[in-house]
Amino acid sequence: MVKPLYNLPEPHTDDAEAIRHWLDSLETQYPVDERACLARACEVLAHCRGEPRPDTGETPIRHGLSTADILARLRMDHETLVAALLKGCLDWSGGELTEAARLEDFGPGIARMVDDLTRIDQLANVEAVIAAKDQPQHEENLRRLLLGIAEDVRVVLVVLAERVHLMRAIKDLEPERRTKIARDTQRVYAPLANRLGIWQIKWELEDLSLRYLQPEEYRRIARLLAERREEREHYIAEVMATLREKFDELGIGAEITGRPKHIYSIWKKMQRKNVDIADIFDLRAVRILVDSVADCYAALGVVHGLWRHIPKEFDDYIATPKGNFYQSLHTAVEGPEAKALEVQIRTHAMHQHAEFGVAAHWAYKEAKGHDAEFQRRVVWMRQWLETKNEDEAAGERLERFKAEFEPAHIYVLTPQSKVVELPKGATPLDFAYAIHSEIGNRCRGAKVNDRIVPLNHTLHSGDTVEILTQKNTAPSRDWLSPHHGYLTTARARNRVRQWFKQQDFDKHLHEGRGLLERELARLGIADKPHLDEIALRFNFKRGDDVLAAIGRGDLAVGQVARQVGEPKAEEAKEREREPEIKPRPPRHHKPGAGSDVVIEGVDDLMTHMAPCCKPVPDDPIIGFVTRGRGVTIHRRDCGNIRHLGAEERERLIEAHWADRSGPSHYPVDLLVVAADRKGLLRDVSSIFADADVDVIGVETHSEKSTDTASMRFTIEVEDNAHLSRLMTKLQQLPEVHQVRRFH
């Protein structure tokens, strides 16, 4: 059974006597100057004349003393105890303690702790969190909220100590209220204590929660244990003494700790394994830490030499580590009085990994979503708590922690007590869009902690935020301006952009359809455009998206018009395979009207430009006689020509450009490689527009690892000189690495 221990007189003792009794009990634990500081805090506490607490019926003085006493038993420093005492004075209107008084009498460190405790106390009740739909995530967010508000880890210790005292004192409450408090404790506060490695608090919170939530199970397990916790602790102490004596004889340096398994842990294991208490062998357990792996196995030999090993109860996680790289030797033996005893043996390094690395229970089993920065902060808190009484520079390390581990996220609450995680520096408008896009779009004001604030107000952990909305309102374009500071999250900015884009969609769709129809008429294209097929070529989902992009000016109407009527790739391949009657070539060639290329020694041959290398006038060219489709004109440096076999090379034929009577346009592929910067595509498009060049195809790719963008354009140019001028202009753009023809 859980038996609370206090250095306080019976409840009927008056408050003044209780204060004197408690201060006297600290004489051996704290030096004179620290006890004097505690006495001053008690004097302030003595002036609190508020109503008894509704949950426990205690006076503010008794409650503050009980909380501080629990912290004293945890060997916390006097500043933590002072903060717990002063915090009690802020809970009741009868004891007003001003900011100036805290700073003047107790120093800025304690003042900050009291401020944090006050903010935590002002949070909405966590019962709404427990009832939330996404319960585990909200519970996790609430734990993070408590850690986020606490600039000083000792603040969390005060919160947990208060919760321990509350759980000890609610046995006479009405069952429904008691059950709610116990459920909150089990789901939020006990896991928080586990995460910080405060085992005494964790065990007591879990046992008391089980006592109120599952009273029959609690009493049954307590009866089955057939001994009090104090007796089990005495048994563990005797086992540890025996082991130390044996290790000293053998010269094995070992650090030995032990603990009796608490009732909640036993109940959980019985539920998980579906076994009875007789099949649980770790009701009493000791842990042995040694310097090397060899010492681990030597220690195992000592344990098995002292007591009989229980068959099938040995696990070697050193030779075969767990999936989270946990390493240790686990064995169960019949200890003194034939009672089952679990023994864990590991090196100090293995223990460090188990407690603070990825093998730690809280990180491996509890964490919802990987947050390396948050986990690093919690690990530091645990390490500080473990060494706070051993390290003379603990205070300096605590200040360094505050500077180095400033939280990257904040945790704020809705009026319904839902906890919302946001990046540090977020605003009420970010909060609105985190709740729902519609709430953000209709936002017209915000209240933070019941006070009207501007929409670019910076939020802090623990704030309760209420968004004020109107039905017929819309986002402002000013929200997207970084200078006004309305939005800091990418999610919120994207939602605002999406709203404006959607509002203008119908207008752009209508304009784009008209532009495309006029362009098709100008080009004399009578085919009906298959917009859904064209959309895929431009990475759009629907044909309407293509039309809207034309209307917005994001896509040139000429690019789309030239796609209309083009044969499908499959149809083109089929025609390529169809046999055609090849006319007998004449012996002499006279270029006909409109012919771009002269074939040496051949007249009236059908020619077409190779799509692989896309030659343009003034490029060195060569012809390839196809089967049934005339002569394909390639650039001489075309890869397909260079890799022809000996038999196919016999089908090459000399060719050169004919004199041109008027301007013509030829497609060519260009590759532009540049730094992936904002406005790059706009700058390149401007070069094409200024040169009156039509872009009939574009394909872009961003490489995140090198932060570069590769863009492939299919454009129409008059000749090689025209292309060279264009490439020179592109090369002169800022942060452009390479411009070349793509083939």
TrEMBL record:
SMART domains associated with the record: RelA_SpoT
State the superkingdom. Bacteria
Gene3D superfamilies on file: 3.10.20.30, 3.30.70.260, Beta Polymerase, domain 2 (3.30.460.10), Hypothetical protein af1432 (1.10.3210.10)
Query: A GO molecular function for this record?
Result: GTP diphosphokinase activity
- List, for all copies, the residue spans of the domain called TGS: 406-469
A GO BP term, please? response to starvation
For this protein, the record's InterPro entries field holds: ACT-like_dom_sf (IPR045865), ACT_dom (IPR002912), Beta-grasp_dom_sf (IPR012675), NT_sf (IPR043519), RelA/Spo_fam (IPR004811), RelA/SpoT_AH_RIS (IPR045600), RelA_SpoT (IPR007685), TGS (IPR004095)
Report biased composition (Basic and acidic residues) as residue ranges. 565-583
List the record's Gene Ontology CC terms alphabetically.
plasma membrane
CDD domains under this entry? ACT_RelA-SpoT, NT_Rel-Spo_like, TGS_RSH
**What PANTHER family does its record include?**
GTP PYROPHOSPHOKINASE, GUANOSINE-3',5'-BIS DIPHOSPHATE 3'-PYROPHOSPHOHYDROLASE
Per the record, the similarity remark reads: Belongs to the relA/spoT family.
Q: What NCBIfam families does UniProt report for this protein, alphabetically?
A: spoT_relA
- Could you tell me what this protein is called? GTP pyrophosphokinase
Q: Which organism is it from?
A: Allochromatium humboldtianum
